[in-house]
Fold this sequence. Notes:
Blueprint: H1 3-25, H2 32-48, H3 51-64, H4 69-81, H5 85-98, H6 104-114
Amino acid sequence: MNTLQKVLVAVSVIIILVGGWYVLKNPRTQSPEKQQTLEVIKEIIITQKDCKTTLPKLANFLKENPRYAEAWQFLGVCQFQTGDWTAAKISFEKALVLDPEMDAPENYLKIINSGVKPVKREAKP
């Protein structure tokens, strides 16, 4: 194998490794169906503010898709809003491990770590 062929092989390996890393880091690129499910859950949280309905859906989604940082964030938000700060802290930390650039989990963790708890919101029946 000549030098040019070795360089091309090395570059090809690097491209494959970087592409694989990107897909693992960004799982939503793997499945539009999973991303659509997550968007439906997000819509329920934002528009209906219905964490009682959303918590089991998120738990089921995360059992099958534990690498979705956004889902961990949504789970943390609902846990936070219903007063389960211990679980919310764990969820926000998992979100940040998967995507350290997320802002919301960091902000919620600052509140949780401050120890000042707002009034607990009741989930819709």
